[in-house]
Amino acid sequence: MVIENLTSKIDLIIASQNSREEKLQEICNYLKSEVPYYDWVGFYFKNGDKEELKLAQYAGEETEHTIIPFGKGICGQVAVSNENFVVQDVSEQDNYISCGWKVKSEIVIPIFMNGENIGQIDIDSHTLNPFSEEDERLLEYICKEITVFL
Ligand code: SME
User: What average pLDDT score do residues 110-128 get?
Assistant: First the structure.
């Protein structure tokens, strides 16, 4: 993966005149189509005042996990830890919400607005051990840059 190639297109999506929803959807579609081991890409955001995450835009198979309580699963843990969570093998996680037998690994990166954890980008992969530092840097970049239009 060449991060620079991906981030230049991401920059264009962010700078476009599209709505917030369209931009988030385009980012999901783009990442899923460009990175072979990104099989599901989605954004979750804090649901108002509630201690839960709500699914926003995503690319990939439909999921029943549209609401995730804080603390539950990989996503819910990131909502409270405020830290990246890289899971190279989901079978080793006790606190994990399965989105189907095909998913082997997952990466979740929090989104901060004025220092507050407001949501996250979540990626599921059908490949074991696919993620490197590069994925974290790419996704951190996206989570930082999108705050200009959130
Ligand atoms: N696996 C996630 C649930 C959300 S799906 O991956 C879309 C988790 O454990 O939080």
Answer: 98
